[in-house]
Specification:
Helix content is 50%, strand content 15%. It is of the alpha/beta class. The chain has a six-stranded mixed β-sheet with strand order 7-6-8-5-9-11, with helices on both faces. A five-stranded mixed β-sheet has the order 2-1-3-10-4. The chain starts with a helix and ends with a helix.
């Protein structure tokens, strides 16, 4: 009887120990909150904001709440150059980044922002063409090469609304451009573009635009209508010239450290999230741009449209020069041209 009781007690003890060991061996869900930089300020109406909201909604469901973007908008984590360096070092997990600013690290992606690359015969940005190109294996190859060169993983392209000119001086044609000091991104391709159009480009950080317009350091800048409203820079402008010369080819990037911390399933989630983010940008900006121009007109700004034939002709020598000098520019230019023709 005593032996039976002892055996029972031993059995219970081993059962408890086995159960405890089994529980300890079960995987513990690790919540990855990816510290993420976004260049624009947080605004519910902006395509980038909507994109991150949709991506987090998808990731929450797909990962069971273990994977999310911890968004820091409006340059809180630094300007784009310092943010990219922080992503390289693994200090920032992810960032939305305008491709032209990457030229300080590599010019691999510059070709996707060639002058008027995405506009149709009516001067409007062809988003179907853009989606077909940046969602292709061809574009994926450039993202992979960017990782080899910079150590930063490219999740995919986003879409930004077409960029316009916001000016304080009269503008009727490119003949007026030589008198206009125009703020430019600190990217060679943009500087060459504006010089070819006749402007006097002034490389400057985005956050300096408002004050520079007030002091007369610049006579204008280029930006999307949506962003100009959110940043209030429209307040120091008198004229909007609709152009569509660039979309800045925004990229969603991740540090190697953050990417390597994900398992195969989580990586697939992140790639799908990037695709969802891009589509959200297309959908959001389509309506937002129409509302933006109405807002600007009611705010008292004159709205004109650039002569696209004249502007494209002025920029063509820049395109030819870049394509002659760099095979990547030519490959991208030719691929977009072939895709347009096939569509």
């Amino acid at each position: 009887m005593k032996r039976s009781i002892v055996l029972s007690v031993v059995t219970v003890i081993f059962t408890i120990i086995f159960a405890a060991c089994t529980d300890a061996a079960e995987p513990v869900s690790v919540i990855r909150s990816l510290r993420t930089s976004m260049p624009t300020v947080y605004d519910e109406t902006h395509g980038y904001t909507q994109a991150f909201l949709k991506m987090n909604e998808y990731l929450n469901e797909a990962s069971g709440g273990t994977l999310t973007f911890d968004l820091h908008p409006g340059g809180r984590l630094g300007d784009e150059r310092s943010v990219f360096e922080s992503v390289q070092m693994g200090l920032i997990d992810a960032a939305l980044f305008n491709a032209p600013v990457l030229s300080g690290f590599t010019n691999l992606m510059d070709g996707f922002d060639l002058p008027y690359l995405w506009v149709d015969e009516n001067g409007e940005v062809d988003t179907a063409l853009h989606a077909a190109v940046v969602g292709s294996e061809f574009a994926r190859g450039y993202l992979d090469r960017m990782k080899e060169v910079t150590g930063v993983h490219g999740l995919g392209f986003f879409y930004n609304a077409p960029r316009d000119f916001f000016l304080n001086k009269p503008f009727n044609s490119l003949a007026d451009a030589p008198s206009i000091k125009l703020r430019s991104m600190q990217a060679e391709i943009h500087i060459k573009m504006y010089e070819a159009m006749g402007f006097l480009p002034v490389p400057m950080a985005y956050g300096e635009i408002y004050q520079a317009m007030n002091t007369g350091s610049i006579d204008g800048f280029e930006d999307t209508a949506v962003a100009a409203i959110i940043a209030d820079t429209y307040e120091v402008s008198r004229l909007v010239v609709k152009s569509g010369h660039a979309t800045a080819s925004p990229l969603l990037i991740m540090s190697r450290r953050a990417w390597d911390s994900l398992n195969t399933e989580e990586r697939e989630m992140m790639m799908e999230a990037a695709r969802i983010g891009r589509q959200t940008c297309y959908d959001t900006f389509a309506a937002a741009m129409l509302n933006a121009y109405d807002f600007l007109e009611k705010a008292g700004l004159e709205i004109k449209k650039i002569d696209h034939a004249e502007a494209i002709a002025a920029c063509q020598p820049v395109i030819d020069e870049l394509c002659d000098q760099n095979p990547d520019f030519k490959a991208i230019y030719d691929y977009v041209k072939q895709t347009r023709e096939s569509m």
